[in-house]
Amino acid sequence: MKFSIFTTFLFFAFLIGLRAQPAEDSYDERVKDQYQIRFLSENDAFGGFSDRYYTNGARLEFHMTAGEKNPTRYLLGGWNGLFVKQDPTTNYLVGLSLGQEFYTPTNISKADISFGDRPYSSRAYLSHSLTTWTENSAITTEFEMGMIGPSVGGKSAQKKFHNYIGSPTPQGWDTQIPDSYSGAIKTDLRKFHHRFFGTQYNLNLGNVQTDFSFGLIFRLGNVDSTPGPGTAVLQPGSPILQIPGKGYWYFYINPGGTFQVYNATLQGQIGSDSTYKNINRNAAFSNIDNLLANPSPELGQREVLYRALAEDNGKNSFQRFLIFNQFLVSGTSNPYDIGLNYLLFNNIFNGAEDVEKNLKLFLMKSVVDQWDSLPQDARLVAIYSLFRPEGGRLPAVARYLSYELLSQFILDPRQREIFLELLREDLEYRENKTYVTDLKRAVGFFRAGFVSVSESGFLVSINYNFQSIDFQSANGLPQQHQWVGFQLGKVF
Predict the structure, then answer these.
(1) What is the pTM (predicted TM-score) of this model?
(2) Are 111 and 54 a contacting pair, CB within 8 Å?
(3) Three-class secondary structure of residue 216 per DSSP
């Protein structure tokens, strides 16, 4: 299933209709026919912030004046008119936009997902919009068609970008939310009650996101009640609103909140049978009582241990390795040095995390020093674990061999049988499935920045974004995220 951008672009171009009609009596005489282009980009790397959650977004827009006979104005004008009072000075812009968004968990070095973290997901879309604007209000309504999933190309795009800026290669894109098509209708309303104060409303209805946002906009600068352009890729709002020969600039702050009903980048598509959640999965160590006829206190204690080792939230690798080494290595007949034991821990309990260069050299030396005493399976696991290809899941056979190598030294025959049976159940349950998580209903955000639109219609803007997380997370994960964005544009 591929996302045909060219075909969809042609479809939307047809919807735009013929060239915009000349400015008629219903338009403000100061506003003539115009065409404009706007580009918005956001990334947590721009501000030097941690690479996690909403990590990248970009949007390219083209807008032009819409005459009375434009089909988009005919179709959406009535809806926009419910919120913005239309009179002879009202102006209309019809637009075509192409956008993409990428999302990642806290720790992108893991090949497996970290339960309680954000899933990998990517989406791309084309949208067709109508903006209705007056002296102090602007409303933009758009129809969106797109795709969520691997066909969007998030894996290759982020890998190339990270290679370019010298950041670690993301390892877990093979676990991302599966392919499906998307559709939505979105409305963004901005109204200024004073040139320095306004309100913002944003409504999304669709099979990727359904939510409602409200915010306040405070601004200071050389500006009248002109609403100004939107500033965020996630809520792009109105395009460049400019009367020829009249420029403006201002600083702004924009606090607000979002109420979420549904978010496919977190929950997967409605009705999908290829996803699972931590709270209801039949994972390793969660079904042990069904396999133990008469569990002893010792086995119950081991179960608690295994659960603690399996609860990987992406940020607790060191403390879980200490547990692993203390209880599953020390005091047992395990003959391996720290090098192989760490690789076994990493494969079984740590999401097959990509090993940092200096640590990898240390592990390699440890394995080489013990090479002659290692069995064949242990050598294979060590070589593959140290030099496996980037950006993919750990094969089931590598994880299974890791369990075999570890279990034969720490468990009696009955325990070992249970241990491997739980692994088999877990691998079968996860096979070809993607981890998802529950969303938080209420999400807060704070935005601030600078906007300038020159007399010739050139737009430049920079914005800072702070947001509380939008999903139910594991303990210990960051509860907020920050990123920086910019936009450039020109009215012709």
Answers:
(1) 0.86
(2) no
(3) strand
